[in-house]
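Below: protein 1.
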Amino acid sequence: MTAAQLVGRIGRAALVGTGLFLLASGVAGAQAAAPANEFSEAGMKFLAAAIAIALGTLGPGIGIGLLGGKAMEALGRNPEAAGVVQTNMILAVAFAEALGIYALVVAILIGFVF
């Protein structure tokens, strides 16, 4: 799979996830909820939070996997550069993991604040 195909698949997954979130949060429908729908409204809120965390950690998970694989390739080709490669890899993993933490914060906000 080429990088362009991977980006295309991730883009489509993000688009579907955004649509599901808008549909679940009631923004897309914009209908007034009847009193009988209070239970399903709470359920949809937590479903939207679950979708947000699932899709929000997909990208960082793929990125961290690619970073680790490429770092191992670099160490295999040039073992003398282990310190520099490891330092840069840990820094890049921290930045990728920050995106997953942002998704967790959004999921918590959806679940408990909105």
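Below: protein 2.
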Amino acid sequence: MTSPLPRVKLEGSSTRRTCDPNLQLRIASDAAVTFAEAFKALGHPVRLQIFDLISQGLGETCSCDIEQHFDLTQPTISHHLKVLRDAGLIASESRGVWVHHRLNQTIIDSIRSLLSSMHP
């Protein structure tokens, strides 16, 4: 069982706000689609865990090293890897009977930049 996320009390949250005419869309529509697809792919617990496992590899991770951590069939693991790949989060390369996966550092850097630009 997972523990709930900690509650955060925002200082001044009871203060009334007025409209802010300086707000702007900072994310272009096409970029918003890309980010949304990445977040949707990571929104599944198993895919998030697989993504984390791949991130721990020294540049790449073999499917055999991923499969051993789950009580799921190989086709199910392959499906989750395909979703991550289709979202652009990972790249995969076949080598013999195994497939090796690596993170797409470009999209990870973009997500990191996006999230770090959002502050209260």
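Residues 44 and 88 are 16 Å apart (CA to CA).
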